[in-house]
Structures are given as C-alpha cells and as structure tokens.
Amino acid sequence: MIALASQLFLPTLRDAPAEAEAVSHKLLVRAGFIRQIAAGLWSFTPLGWRVHRKIEHIIREEMDAIGAQEWLAPVLTPAELWEATGRYAITELFKLDDRAGRHYVLPLTHEETFAFHAREIQSYKELPQSWYHFQTKDRDEPRPRSGLIRVREFIMKDSYSFDRDGAGLDESFRKHGEAYWKIFERCGIEVYEVAAESGIMGGSGSRDFLAPSGSGENTLVTCENGDFAADIEVARTMPRPPDFPERLDRPEEVETPGTTTIEALAALLSVDRAATSKAMPVVKADGTLVLALIRGDDRLDDMKMLSALGSDFRPATEEEIRQAFGSDPGSIGPIGFDGEVVADETLGVGQYVAGANRTGVHLRGVEAGRDYQPRFADLRASKEDDTCPVCGGRLRFQTAIEVGHIFKLETKYTIPLEATFLDEDGTEKPLVMGSYGIGPGRVLATIVEQSHDEQGIVWPRSVAPYDVHVVALPGVEEQAHEAATVLDAAGLSVLLDDRDARAGEKFADADLIGLPTRITVGRKTVEDGAVDVRDRATGEERRVAIASLGEAF
Predict the structure, then answer these.
(1) Cα–Cα dist 432/457, whole Å
(2) Are 187 and 55 in contact, with CB atoms under 8 Å apart?
(3) What are the CA-CA distances from residue 368 to residues 299, 335, 379 (Å)?
(4) What is the pLDDT of residues 42-62, one digit of tens each?
(5) What are phi and psi of 32, to 5 degrees?
(6) DSSP secondary-structure letter at 550?
(7) Which residues lie below 8 Å from residue 538, measured CB to CB, with a gap of 6+?
(8) Which residues touch 131 (CB under 8 Å, ≥6 apart)?
(9) 2-235+397-449 is classed CATH 3.30.450.40
(10) How far is residue 260 from each of residues 66, 144, 264, 266, 495, measured CA to CA in Å?
(11) Domain with CATH 3.90.960.10 in the chain
(12) How many CB atoms lie within 10 A of CB 191?
C-alpha cells in the first residue's frame, strides 16, 4: 500500500508537552502517534493505531500458536461477580449504576467474567481450555502519568487457562511464558522474566516481564554475573553483615532522651545502624495493630508487607502507638508488646538495639527467639549495596516497565463463582485457573523507550506503521511516485511524503516518525535514476536504482 502524507493526519510537533518526562511520552506526542483527552486518557491517531494493531497481530499469532481461543467479553460487568470474589472493594475499580439501580463495574481485568463462563465446562474431557480476548480496561488511577505507561483506560490482551489440577496449570503457565518471550522478541524489546508480587490478583505465584527503560514504575534488580534477576518488590538480596557489639546475656536498658531516629540512636550509642532495629507499627484492614521490625539501615517494602500480612494496611497513628505500647513512637520495640510481631528475616541472627516501650529508653542486646517470638518474613527493600544471593556479585538497579504479567490463580476465582467440573473419578472439583496479561499500548511505549535517538523514534520493522518513508524533494514528484510504486509491488507498505514542505522539515519528520528505512528522491535521481536508501537505526546509506528497489529489502 502507498499512503500519501498530504492526505494523512500527521500532526507532528517541534516541542514536547511541558509536563512530559518519559521519552516515550515526548516522542509519541511529537511524532503524532497519540493525543491526550484528559489525564490518563489517550487517543491513538491513525499512525499510532497502525502500530498498536501490529502489536496486537503479533500477540494474536502467538496466542493462537499455543491453542488459545479468542473471545470478546463485554466491558460493563455485573457487580455481583466482583462481590462474589471479594474484589468489589478495590479502590481502583470504577463502579456505576444503571437507571434501575443495578450495580456494575468497569473492570480492570476479566477474571470474574471468564470464570463465570467457565461454569459451562462440565467434564475433565473438555480440559484444558485456554481463552483470550483484547478488550478495553478501566482503572481509577489516582496519578496517571508518563504517557501510555500509567493510564486510566487501555486495551489489554488477557487470557485465562482452565485445568483439572496443578500439573495442568503448570503446563498452561509454561506455554504462556514461552509465548510471551516470542512476542517480546518479535516486538524487538529486551525483557527479563522475574518472580513477582501477585497483589490484588491473588493466587499462588506470578511472573513479571520487565523491560529496562528510562521510565517506568518497577525496579529491576540484576546481578552483574547474570545469576539473578527480580522485581525489587520480591527481591531477596543479601545485605552487608552488621558490625555487632559484644553479645549480652540479657537485654540492658540505656537512657536515650530525645532520640527518635535511627541515625541519632546509632550516633548516641556508637553502634552500627545495621545493629539497630526499626519498629514500624501498622494497622490491618480489620483494625488489628501489628508491629513490623526491620534493620535500622533498611526500608520497609510496602508490597512485601502486604504479602506478609495478607491484608491492606496503614501506618498506626501516634495515639494508637501510645495506646498499644505505652510509649512515644521513637522508643517502641517488640519486648512486652502483646500483639503480633512480624520481623524481617535479617533479624533472625544477632542482637540489636530496640525500643524499650518507655519514652526515652532503649534496650541493648535484644535477640529474636530469646527475648520475643516474632513471625519472620521478607520485609526489607533491596538496596544498592546489597549483593547477589546466588554468587555474591554486585547488583544493578534499573528502572523498568512491566510489559507482561502471568499468574497462577488456582481456585481463587473458580470456587466463589462455582466453576466446577466432573473429574474422571466422578467427583466434582473446582477448575484450576491461570491468568495472563499483556498491554499492547504499554508494549508500544516500551519499544520507544528502548529504541530511539536524539532525532526521534526508531521502530523495529515488525511493528513500524509503514516499512519505508519515501521523501520527495521538489521537482521529482514523478520519480518519487515511481519509487513508491516499485516498493508497493514488492509487498512493502510505503509512506510517501508528497507534502508541499521544505526538505529540512520532511527529513526532520522522517527521523521523528522513525520508519525503518528512508528513501530520498532528489534532483540527482533525474540524472541517474537512483535514490538514497538510508537505514534509520544505523544511519548507513546506499545508492539504489529505482528499478532495483524491490530487491533491496
């Protein structure tokens, strides 16, 4: 096909939006691929939609290749499905009523809908099943930002597997993981598959596909030796060993008036910050106060805490702290507290300084197991002076975009929605479910984050809106159309810039839009019948006769 720039909607801009920070946000707006309606709400222009559809096509091919069957489920969903699974209270969920007062949601994913449909599966003979669709999702995102990376509405490919047992789920999970690797390879992006936090999805385990980028909301932790990769939310890295003082047979009180921070405490007692413990009281959704403990030099990871508690939580107020511990916040600790104590795993070895639950007093030599009985969990956030848990190597922390996420949901949704089947032994059992998501729009943004230069986007050929950008300079319009026709006959899609514009403007737009190949038709073409063929990624140029253009690709 040949698309004429003079007839297309190509709203390129010289400057990026003032609020744009992410490279993909800047370039996709400047190059005319997307336009904003409101915070987190974006339209794809014809150019952007062509890229989106090509990414969809790649995803669809790989889903079909593993035997998944395509559906289309509605966006508007009865609220009772989400009430049955306990997810109706999610704050990011859009909720609405119809004119008769019936409650609905605009789902941010479709587990409930497909588990509902799976109730029609009757027998083990019908298993396994793998279903997918491309559908609009809505999310009441409080802080949409970074263009397509954090939005309030988006299209997602979500697929769902249904098996008779855990072994079947493992196989479906493996197939989807392999398909995702093929999708990202075909889209030309670098990704790492890592263990991940399941969050509001639940289930027994999940894997993230993280793409390193200049923008993003995830942090990818990798080892310099290639032995380790994880999302920081679940990374179990090795902190440096603390410099412990001499061991004590029992805790000893020490006066610490006015000392309310770890830094001040360590300085006052001349101890390593890593040999102190930090008390973090939190209140669960049911009102229970729990004391979280981490090393003084560490930071509590909220997602790890959420996983450890199995509940949403908030920091305890000063009044709640005084009531529970009998002390001001800066002097609290685990000894004498009659509630649950969840301690980071690093506190399982050694003795630490902790609050004495008396204002202005701390305890030296506090030892878990001897002096208090905690439940241990991984609570600490990994940090850059940690080392690899596999080989002890140095770690690298990179900003990353989550481009895919796969979950082992097991029976979290099928039991409450009564999606069961009759097994071979005649017993009724709940279907075992998996969920697999990938957002074409976020993949599109990731490609730009990883593939661009100072001039603009550098699209991989597999997803580029057109294969070739033919730039027609003044006076050679006939030769430019001839070149485009030869390319079209060779099966290539062509964007022919036939606009009445300056050469510099056309070249700048070609670099900004970023098609894989630019062909310049200039005055010299009249003399030799050849054109300049330039590779967008490498900048390499060659002179090719118009008649031979079809064989040049």
Answers:
(1) 43
(2) yes
(3) 19, 10, 16
(4) 999 999 999 999 999 999 999
(5) 80, 30
(6) G
(7) none
(8) 68, 69, 70, 71, 114, 117, 159, 160, 161, 162
(9) no
(10) 58, 36, 7, 11, 65
(11) 252-377
(12) 25
Q: How far apart are CA 94 and CA 104, in angstroms?
A: 9
CATH architecture for the domain at 252-377 = Alpha-Beta Complex (3.90)
Six token digits for residue 367? 């030892």
Round to whole Å and give the CA distance between 379 and 233: 9
CA distance 519 to 510: 10
| Chain position carrying tokens 């929605």 | 417
For 506, residues 6+ apart whose C-beta sits below 8 A from its C-beta are 471, 472, 473, 497, 499
Dist. CA 223–CA 21, nearest whole Å: 28
What are the CA-CA distances from residue 325 to residues 290, 295, 312 (Å)? 11, 20, 22
Contacts of 516 (CB under 8 A, 6+ apart): 459, 460, 461, 464, 467, 468, 535, 536, 537
* CATH topology (fold) of 468-551: Rossmann fold (3.40.50)
What tokens does 169 get?
């789920």
Amino acid at 119: R
- If you average pLDDT over residues 320-340, what whole number do you get? 95
The helix/strand count (H/E) of the chain reads as: 12, 30
How far apart CA 359 and CA 114 sit, in angstroms, is 55
pTM of the model: 0.89
Q: d(Cα 323, Cα 288) in Å, to the nearest integer?
A: 13
**What is the per-residue pLDDT across 238-295, written as a single tens digit (0 to 9) for each?**
999 999 999 999 999 999 999 989 999 999 999 999 999 999 999 998 999 999 999 9
User: CATH 3.40.50.800 occupies which residues in the chain?
Assistant: 468-551
**Where in the chain is CATH 3.30.930.10?**
2-235+397-449
Task: Indicate whether 469 pLDDT > 90.
Answer: yes
- Phi and psi at 234, nearest 5°, equal -125, 5
Contacts (Cβ under 8 Å, ≥6 apart) of 172: 128, 130, 161, 163, 434
Around Cβ 417, how many Cβ atoms within 10 Å?
Answer: 23
261 vs 492: CA distance, rounded Å: 65
Give per-residue pLDDT as tens, 5-24.
999 999 999 999 999 999 99
Q: Do residues 438 and 183 lie in contact, with contact meaning Cβ atoms separated by under 8 Å?
A: yes
Q: For the chain, how many residues are written?
A: 553
* Helix orientation angle between 440-450 and 23-30, rounded to the nearest 10 degrees: 100
